[in-house]
User: What shape does this take?
Amino acid sequence: MWQAYEMPTSVEEALAILARYDGRARLIAGGTDLILELQQGKRQVECLVDVTRIPGLDRIERQGDWIVLGAGVTFRQIKDSPLLKEHARLLPEAAATVGALQIQTVATLAGNVVNAMPAADGSVALVALDAEAEIAAQQGRVWKPVIELFRGPGESAVDPSREMLTAIRFPVPGPRHGSAWERIGRRKALVLPILNCAVSITLNADHRTIEQARIGLGPVAPIPFRARETEAFLVGRPAEEETFTQAAEIAAGEAQPRSSLLRASKEYRTEVLKVLVRQGLTRAVAQAQGMS
Amino acid sequence: MEVKTYPLTMTVNGRQVTVQVEADELLVDVIRDRLGLTGTKIGCNEGECGACTVIMDGQAVLSCLIPALRAQGREIITIEGLSDGETLHPLQQAFVEHGAVQCGYCIPGFILSAKALLDVNPHPDREQIKEAIAGNLCRCTGYVKILEAIEAVAQRTDG
Assistant: This one.
C-alpha cells in the first residue's frame, strides 16, 4: 500500500520530507479514514509521513481572543476539554458522536477537515464557529477560513502531499452565547450521520432577541453547509419557538438534502432537518440565556 | 519502489519485543502474524466492529487502523496479557460467570475496551460502560450479559 513510513519530530521536517517526495508522500494523523482509503485503492502514496510524534501539536488553549487547537488534538481530547465545554459546547458534543471511543482516541479534528467529507461531524461543527485553519507550507504559514478549504466530497484545498494543516482556531464567543450539536444516525455509535446540525447563537443585551446566528449542516451539499439564509432570517428576531419553527422551514428550503440509498431519503432528511434545527436553536438559546 | 522494512520495538503484555516490519503493515497483523498473538481478532478489518481492539498506552484503539510503526516505543496490551497464569483476569472471570460469551469472537475486544475504562475509572456507571463498549459489536449476546459482567467488576469494592 505504501513503501516508506516516516515519523518527523517537527513541522519543518515533515514539510521537508513531503518536498523530497514531490507529491508522492502524504501526511497521516489518526489515519482512521486515510488507512481505509489506501486499502481500498482510493488513494496511492509512496510514503506516509506520520505527524503524531511532533511535540506541541496536542494543545487546546486560549490565546487572547482565540481558542486554538493544535493539529494533533483528537476528538477524545475535545470531548473531555473543560475549556471547550465552557466556550463552545457544540464542539465537544460533536466530538462525542464521531465513530466510537477507539476512533475518537486517535482521530484528529484537523484530519477531519483535510479529509473534507460533507457529513464530517468535526467539520460541520467548525463552520458554525467561524473557525480558521493554519496551513504551513515551505513558503510559510497562513490562516484561512475553514469553510473555504472544502472543494467537494473528499477534496480539500489543503494538499497533504505538500502542506500541513497545523492548527485550528475560532474566536472566543462573547457573553450571551450558546451552542448546540444535533445529530441523527441509525444508532448512536459507529455510524455516519443521516444528518447533523451545529448551532451557535449570540443574544442581544435584552436576552430575548438574536444578535448573531451560525448554523452548520451536513450532509446536505458536496461540502459542509452554512445555512446563511436561515442565519440572516434569525438576526434581530425574538428567540422563541415561533422563530425557530420558521427558521427550520427556511433551513430545509436552502439546504435541500438528497436521497441516499444507504442512509435516508430526501423526504425523511428534509423533515428531520427541521427537527434538528429547531432543537439546536432551542438548546443553544437556553444556554445563551443561562438556563442550561 | 522497494517496500522498506524497519525495526519496530514495543512493549507487548509487559515484554519488550523487536520485530522487523514492512512500511505498510498494520498493528493487528504484526500482533497476530509476527507475534503469534491470535487472541486479537480481525472482524471487519475496517474500523467498524471493534474485534481488533487492543490497549495502546492505556487507551483502547483499533489495531486494524493503526500503522504498526506508530507503535514504536509504545506499550500494547492484548487479551493474552490479562490472565495471571491459569488465573483469569476479573473481567474474564465475570464474562464467564455471567454467560457473556457465546461465539466469543468479539470478546477479546470487549474485555480490552472494558479494561481500558476500568483502569482509569474503576467504578463507572452503566452509561459510562455503554460509551466505552459502543465501538464493539456483538452479534450473539444482545449485549445485556456483557454489560452485566462489566458492571459486576465495576461494583466490586476490593479494587
User: Anything to note?
Assistant: Chain A has a mean pLDDT of 96. Chain A touches chain B at residues 1-5, 7, 28, 31-32, 35-36, 39, 46-48, 50, 52, 76, 99-103, 105-106, 188-190 (CB under 8 Å). Chain A has three domains: 4-49, 60-171, 177-288.
